[in-house]
Prior knowledge:
alpha+beta, Jelly Rolls, 9-stranded mixed sheet, 5 helices, about 20% helix
Amino acid sequence: MPHTTALDPLFTALDTAAFTDRHLANLAAGTRAAVRAPDFLDQPTCRAAMAALDRLPRADYDLSRVPTPIIRFGPALNDYRGQDGQLDAEPYWHDAEAARAAWHRAGIRPDPIAVSLAHLAGAWGAAVAPATIGGRAVFGGTLREINAGALVHYDDINREFPGLFDQEIVAQLAFNVWVSVPAAGGATTLWRHRWDPADELHRQAYGYRPQTVTGHQQVSLTPGPGDALLFNPANFHAVEPCPHGRRIAFAFFLGLTTTGQLITWS
Ligand SMILES: [Fe+2]
């Protein structure tokens, strides 16, 4: 059992008016828990996105596999893992192309994904490009509605799909921006704990039972409407249920590559 009396003074959340390259570097290096930009999207942009939800096709998760219903638009690579652990390429690319077409048809203006990528490119000082597989751009920019919470888990593309992308990734960040938040609940919690083989004793569906993070230092944030959040998803994280109201975020990952580029995927 880890001790909680000696705390890492760097494992804290920071609020900022604008993301910078330093924020990205600190999150990559593990010297910051999270960086939040309140009101990253203004309220007209959030309202435009919410008004467009009905124009986007949405698919429910397979509830026999996932105990918490999460509605989302756009394919995430993790949902296309075949029995052999490899990407189930045919359905993935089919759904990626369909989502791209549906996104353009919906014509959301301002485009919250484009706004977010432009901001991050400005912070990094270089364009943010999609990750590619065999030269083909993967989908980035899912829309997730998480009202029932999400289990404790971590995300690490290098463990999930080793060598999948044409690019080599040395650090992965998670980006979320909320266009609707509930009046109460829905906090995101990050623990100062990264995957250890012993955690496999606590596996539960797509995540882990709470014991896997018991006693570890943690940071909790409750997003406001329009807020954006960056964190390192190698740290275990979870979402608290919100029984009343809709918690809806656009989400993608950022990868810092061996050549210093930022690439994106979902
Ligand atoms: Fe995650």
